[in-house]
Specification:
The chain is an alpha+beta fold. 23% of the residues lie in helices and 29% in strands. The protein has one domain: Roll (Pnp Oxidase, Chain A), CATH 2.30.110.10. A hairpin with a 4-residue loop joins strand 9 and strand 10. Bound molecules: flavin mononucleotide.
Length: 260
């Protein structure tokens, strides 16, 4: 089982002290045949917590209960970064064809810290019958730790922890309008092109957490960190730059202070 990364308490504190800036600049690599030569691709995405810990809105909890999906028990933790996306977007193909190499950067203005997280990103949320999905879940599983629930109880869920329900929980935590965006016309295609499927249009609201069309496109990206760097610029005369590197598949972490 991987050990908790030594930087995690500080990064968590910084993220919770920066409620207005939990977006990430996520860089992936576009490799041939997606592009002629390898090219970096960056975009903003929303940080959705450390997999599988989710700060569920009360309306999400209500929908999960009402639709008889329920909640997973809160028994796992990790330092893997979760975000959500649409499988039709380019970052998904880029991750799949580049071996998942990513850098995720947080600039947390309120605390004057930049965090750069390099590692491997995989995509979950497809049918478990597929080999890619099984491999991705296996990869994420190797980064999970069982929480110490001796003092907190066994996590208060509905039955056993399971992957499909975990993806349902991420979907439920979006507003009905955001859920509807997974039924938009294909992202990145010309607006002059009408989608063949009449169910694909802008501005839809989705209440059904199992909506077939939206769930076909909804995915969770999970990034397992391998190297993490913090830059603290609060004291301009002495910025702090620290790098942590995972060794033996995250069993240990090496920490080095660097000149800024
Ligand atoms: C503030 C903000 C938050 C965003 N959050 C997400 C997100 O969580 N997931 C996502 O896929 N795209 C998000 N986007 C849109 C992406 O920046 C990007 O336009 C989209 O993912 C398509 O990128 P791609 O084709 O390179 O994959 C966000 C954009 C902004 C401005």
């Amino acid at each position: 089982m991987p050990k908790p990364a030594p930087y995690l308490p500080l990064l968590t504190t910084h993220l919770t002290s920066s409620p207005t800036s939990t977006s990430i600049t996520l860089t992936t690599l576009s490799t041939p045949p997606l592009s002629k030569t390898p090219l970096p691709r960056s975009r903003t995405v929303e940080f959705r917590g450390f997999f599988p810990t989710l700060n569920l809105h009360s309306s999400a909890i209500q929908s999960l209960k009402d639709q008889h999906i329920g909640l997973n028990p809160d028994i796992y933790e990790s330092e893997m970064i979760a975000l959500t996306t649409d499988k039709r977007m380019e970052k998904v193909q880029e991750l799949e064809s580049s071996g998942g190499v990513v850098e995720a950067v947080f600039w947390l203005r309120e605390v004057g810290n930049q965090w750069r997280v390099r590692g491997k990103g995989v995509i979950i949320g497809d049918d478990i019958q597929g080999e890619k999905e099984r491999e991705a879940r296996g990869f994420v599983e190797r980064g999970l730790r069982r929480k110490d629930t001796t003092t907190t109880g066994d996590g208060d869920g509905d039955g056993e922890w399971n992957w499909d329900r975990q993806v349902d929980m991420y979907f439920a935590n979006h507003s009905p309008g955001m859920r509807g965006s997974f039924k938009n016309p294909p992202p990145g295609t010309p607006r002059s092109q009408q989608p063949e499927n009449p169910e694909l249009k802008l501005g839809q609201k989705v209440e059904d957490l199992k909506d077939k069309v939206a769930r076909e496109n909804f995915r969770v990206v999970v990034i397992r960190p391998e190297e993490v760097e913090r830059l603290d610029i609060n004291d301009p005369s002495n910025p702090i730059r620290t790098r942590w590197t995972a060794v033996r598949d995250g069993e240990e972490w090496e920490e080095v202070d660097l000149w800024p």
